[in-house]
Hints:
It is built from two helices and no strands. By secondary structure, it is mainly alpha-helical.
Amino acid sequence: IVTGDLDTLITEIESEGDLLYSRLKKQLFSEEKDLLEIIKWKEIYDCFESIINDTERVVDIIDGMIIKNT
């Protein structure tokens, strides 16, 4: 995969992840009645969102290193 293609792919995945994260949190808070379930799933969703965002940042760093060293 060429660097630009990887950047585009990661950006698309991150955007899809953001949409999914928002939809799932909205669904969680509007449908779930058990407070412990809300807390548990919110934490899980937050972790996934953080992982996706961190992955995008890593790709940006790697892309910058590649550009700098070419």
